[in-house]
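Shipment paperwork, digital attachment
Item: protein structure file
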Amino acid sequence: MKSLEFTSDDGEILAFFVLEETKINGVHYLLVAESEDDEAECYILKDLSKEEDKEAVYEFVESDEELESIGKIFEE
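Attachment content:
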């Protein structure tokens, strides 16, 4: 399982395990977990990167509508 590290806006290093990836309407999404444990908390991250960005830029999906629609795709 692939793991990724992210730096939060306040400089904190966050580590996640990538469970699934998908691209919808040109937007790349990651389903990630804090650990490989089956009971781990999962999150959906949205890629906000632009072509000129040197590193990927992700944000947590917080919109209930977006979480529900993307979550259904990851459930499949």
